[in-house]
Amino acid sequence: MYGLGSIDYLSLKKRVRAADYLVVAQLFLQSNFLLKTPLMSEDIKSRLLGHWGTCHGIDVVYSSLRQAIKKFEFVLGPGHGFPALQANLFIDGDLEKIDPELSRNSQGIAKLCREFSWPGGFPSHASPYTPGVICEGGELGYALGAAYGSALGHPEKTIAVLIGDGEFETATALASMNLSKIMSSDKHGLVIPILHLNGYKISGPTISGRKSDRELSEQIRGFGYRPILADENNLADKLITFSRGDFIIFRSEKGEGGPSFVKGQKIAGNYLSHQIPLKNPKTDPLELSILETWLKSYNFSELFDETKGFTL
């Protein structure tokens, strides 16, 4: 476990802010990545493709794991939230190990953001090209089964698996819940299942997101797990005390940190944040202004220095 079992939540929140900023920059920017000048139309990619809504939650989960657990493997069920995973791999220097041009400096940030979801660059979803990825995540439902399969017969492994609440509606995900009964022995690795409950999928609310804590906990308990309720303020502590057979239910807001309303439409806390929440910032001055305010809200200059690098 991490250190003496205490969590530095101030450091954790800084890291999440940095990762969130890098996610938004990947989704939208082709230049001016550190906002040294006012954001202009020419700074915006001509083709916007990616998913924002799940990313803040992924950043919280991955950052919390990094604080709470020394060594772990990570399986990302909602692989469409790839810019969040990529942001965290960049912050930790994992991308730099395979591509020196992705070093943790301003040039690395430029490459990370410019080439996300771009021809010849990085894909919009997690893929086998990503260090450590064993489950693409675009085919929702397989994450938990992949995590248990990787842990089978490997007691030295700790595998955290994030399951989207839309993914949790698939037959494959629900069938995989039964694997807890054959993986309860310490002859196998420790699997940490985390249900990411943000309430919405691509086109509407999720079933799990509309259940009460009690109803959802009883469903999880019926599969033989001990449900553990968590949010952004205590997830890392829950991870420190995690035991085999626990199942974490992590609640966060869909699209948290992004625009609340755009032209009268509710975005954050709604399915409209699932993909690109601002459709035309390159040509719409209002949306460009909203994007600039959104990016500046993370105060990235407090978290990254061009000389010293990340100050987290």
Task: Summarize the structure in words.
- The protein has a single domain (9-300), classed as Rossmann fold (3-Layer(aba) Sandwich), CATH 3.40.50.
- Helices cover 32% and strands 12% of the residues.
- The chain has 10 helices and 9 strands.
- The protein has helices spanning 9-28, 55-68, 82-91, 94-98, 106-114, 143-151, 171-176, 213-222, 235-240, 285-296, and strands at 73-76, 158-164, 190-197, 226-230, 246-251, 261-262, 265-266, 304-305, 309-310.
- The strands form 3 sheets. The protein has a 5-stranded parallel sheet with strand order 1-2-3-5-4, with helices on both faces. Strands 6-7 form a two-stranded antiparallel sheet. A two-stranded antiparallel sheet has the order 8-9.
- The longest helix is centred in the first third of the chain and has 20 residues, at 9-28.
- It is globular.
Total number of beta strands: 9
Number of helices: 10
Radius of gyration, rounded?
Answer: 19 Å
Question: What's the structural domain tally?
Answer: 1
Helix vs. strand class:
alpha/beta
Which residues form runs of ≥5 with pLDDT under 50? none
Note the beta-strand portion. 5-15%
Largest beta-sheet details: 5 strands, parallel
CATH fold topology: Rossmann fold
The share of residues in helices is 25-40%
**C-alpha end-to-end distance:** 20 Å
CATH superfamily: Thiamin diphosphate (ThDP)-binding fold, Pyr/PP domains
